[in-house]
Design the sequence.
């Protein structure tokens, strides 16, 4: 199947700490794995992606790690800020297809 | 604001009524997607267009659902004879297809449908 799921539905983090959001996937036939951020009342916003032939990619304050051996994806947010509070979805783009398959989401709550 | 707009933002209707939503993608984007999102879940793919051609439809898209993109620009999603199970957020996204690259999808704010 193409399920993409998350281990924790809610994550509470103190402002300034690092956040780690985890995701397990089942379909190995993906060209890309993607993290989206969705704030209340808005559509998902692209954060960072990683190609299936990579195991790490860094952006501004975010790092995505891909472990294909155990089919695990994680998003690390450094120095978490109140503006990072949102629901985060991992997603994958199976090879040759255009539809993005989303997981169920993790809510990140940043405690000031 | 991603540049993708949707109208209306909210729609409340009675069961059995027809509803139509509109999506205006980023102007130079040739691909347009529709997704449905229920509370606490990730968006689920419904269908996508390349220019005016509808290239893929999900099994979620029953016969009561129809989508069009007549001139390869804006798109409409119509639901006929709405049911309470149709209550959801309907998201539109657009992308510019580039060979060999991730075609990042930019999402609109969605239309929240409530069927009473």
Sequence:
């Amino acid at each position: 199947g193409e399920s993409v799921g998350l281990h924790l539905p809610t994550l509470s983090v103190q402002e300034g700490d690092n956040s780690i959001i985890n995701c397990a996937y089942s379909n190995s036939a993906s060209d890309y794995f993607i993290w989206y951020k969705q704030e209340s009342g808005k559509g998902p916003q692209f954060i960072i992606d990683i190609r299936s032939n990579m195991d790490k990619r860094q952006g501004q304050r975010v790092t995505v790690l891909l472990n294909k051996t155990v089919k695990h994806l994680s998003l690390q947010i450094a120095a978490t800020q109140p503006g990072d509070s949102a629901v985060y979805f991992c997603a994958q783009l199976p090879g040759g297809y255009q539809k993005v398959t989303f997981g169920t989401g993790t809510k990140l709550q940043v405690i000031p | 604001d991603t540049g993708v707009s949707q109208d209306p933002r909210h729609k409340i209707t009675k069961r059995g009524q027809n509803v139509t939503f509109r999506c205006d993608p980023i102007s130079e984007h040739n691909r347009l997607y529709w997704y449905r999102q229920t509370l606490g879940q990730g968006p689920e793919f419904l269908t996508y267009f390349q220019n005016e051609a509808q290239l893929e439809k999900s099994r979620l898209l029953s016969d009561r659902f129809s989508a069009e993109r007549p001139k390869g620009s804006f798109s409409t999603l119509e639901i006929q004879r709405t049911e309470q199970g149709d209550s959801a957020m309907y998201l539109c996204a657009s992308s510019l297809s580039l060979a060999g690259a991730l075609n990042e999808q930019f999402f609109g704010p969605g239309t929240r449908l409530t069927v009473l």
Notes: The longest strand of chain A covers residues 30-38. Residues 15 and 37 of chain A are 18 Å apart (CA to CA). The radius of gyration of chain A is 13 Å. Chain A touches chain B at residues 4, 31-32, 34, 41-46, 49, 51, 89, 91, 93, 97-105 (CB under 8 Å).
